[in-house]
Design brief:
about 220 residues, alpha/beta, seven-stranded mixed beta sheet, 7 strands, about 25% strand
Length: about 220
């Protein structure tokens, strides 16, 4: 199916509204996907960039083997993240920045791993954000995504198509297909799909990992 991507103003407005209740509402719903992504990132270790860090829900999922930098477009969400940092419970979280993931200000090859949890389906240009993640990750590093991806067939796909128009104003997009991620990887030099799997127990979310390969001679 073909649908338009969400625009920046829709996402910013929606998540500013979500900020006061995001942890309570979305925390329990997304916990399995969030922990799966963080576990994959911890296996890489080192400097990790969290794209769409939001309120900092994932801070608990990392440890002192990592050094976390977060970016998000939504200022009210970042206020929540900074309040968590101020408690002193998360010394591995070094900084969070208000930044557009389409145009990040980090130098090339700055991070060992880039994580985007429940983000890539919501941005204005998923392919541009993926390319920015690819730019800032080091060769041999991972880009780790976790999201609900479009079921593509059957009753679930029909429900997702129906829900797509109803939920756009909430900053949600249930009908985003894996094929777009795959097409980006195939069109991008120095990127290879290394993992794609459903997250237990219900398989609602899919974990997708790309590796930035070494630059060709």
């Amino acid at each position: 199916m073909t649908t338009t991507d969400l625009d920046r103003s829709t996402v910013e407005t929606a998540y500013a509204r979500w900020a006061p209740i995001y942890d309570a509402v979305c925390g329990p719903v997304m916990v399995k996907g969030r922990r799966a992504a963080a576990k994959a990132a911890r296996a890489v270790g080192g400097r990790i960039l969290e794209v769409g860090v939001g309120t900092g829900l994932s801070f608990d999922d990392y440890d002192t083997t990592t050094e976390i930098t977060g970016v998000d477009l939504c200022a009210p969400m970042l206020e929540k993240a900074r309040a968590k940092m101020a408690t002193g419970r998360y010394p591995w979280v070094k900084a969070v920045h208000q930044m557009d993931a389409h145009r990040m200000t980090f130098a090339d090859q700055s991070f060992d791993c880039v994580v985007a949890q429940f983000v890539i389906t919501l941005v204005a240009s998923p392919e541009q954000v993926l390319s920015e993640c690819h730019r800032v990750v080091k060769p041999g590093g991972r880009i780790i995504l976790v999201n609900h991806l479009y079921s593509e067939r059957g009753v679930a796909a029909a429900v997702e198509r129906w829900a797509a128009q109803k939920t756009r104003g909430l900053g949600l997009r249930p009908e985003f297909p894996f094929a777009r991620l795959q097409a980006w990887a195939e069109s991008t030099r120095e990127a290879v799909l290394v993992e794609r799997r459903k997250v237990a127990p219900f398989g609602i979310y899919t974990l997708v990992c790309f590796e930035r390969t070494q630059k060709a001679a």
